[in-house]
Automatic annotation (TrEMBL):
Keywords: Coiled coil, Cytoplasm, Golgi apparatus. This is RAB6-interacting golgin. It comes from Tigriopus californicus (Marine copepod). GO terms for biological process: non-motile cilium assembly. Residues 1-74 are annotated as: Disordered.
Length: 173
């Protein structure tokens, strides 16, 4: 270090790019605007305290290759467990879907059989109803015919009786 009272040689002129560029920050422990070699004691104690306080977090924040491998293994295991659980859920879903589809198939077959039976029963019902109507009409026709036959028979009997009475000359008084 040069004594502060000694004359210093003039600095050579800087190129234009160097004059525009910002000056580099002072080294740690040196106060800004201080001359080189003069250390600020407050700043030094502050830097030392920061280094002591942050030494552990810095060491733990910088991942070691082993910690990275362990974390990767843990994440891989978690992914495998998640995939296994999803696979189990898919198996359960597939089994449930298969069972429901089988039940739907069975219900569909039962429905078709019931529909056929209903159609046959409906056809039989329509046929029986038609037969009932036909036999009912036939019965009514025969009943009317019987009434007509009885009435005609009574008329003939009456006419025959009148004729016999005339022949016998019997008068009704």
């Amino acid at each position: 270090m040069k004594p502060s009272g000694a004359a210093q040689p003039p600095n050579p002129p800087l190129p234009a790019a160097a004059r525009l560029a910002p000056s580099p920050p002072p080294p740690l422990g040196v106060a800004p605007n201080a001359t080189h070699g003069t250390l600020n004691p407050d700043l030094l104690s502050h830097v030392a305290a920061d280094e002591e306080n942050s030494s552990e977090p810095l060491n733990s924040a910088i991942p070691a290759p082993e910690a990275g491998k362990q974390r990767t293994c843990e994440e891989t295991e978690k992914l495998q467990r998640a995939q296994a659980e999803l696979g189990q859920i898919d198996k359960c879903l597939s089994a449930d879907v298969r069972l429901i589809r089988d039940e739907i198939e069975t219900a569909s077959l039962e429905f078709m059989e019931s529909q056929k039976r209903y159609d046959r029963a409906e056809k039989e019902f329509v046929s029986a109803k038609l037969r009932l109507h036909q036999t009912s009409e036939r019965k009514e026709q025969l009943t009317e015919h019987l009434i007509t036959v009885i009435q005609q028979s009574e008329l003939r009997k009456g006419q025959k009786l009148e004729e016999i009475m005339r022949v016998l000359d019997i008068r009704t008084t």
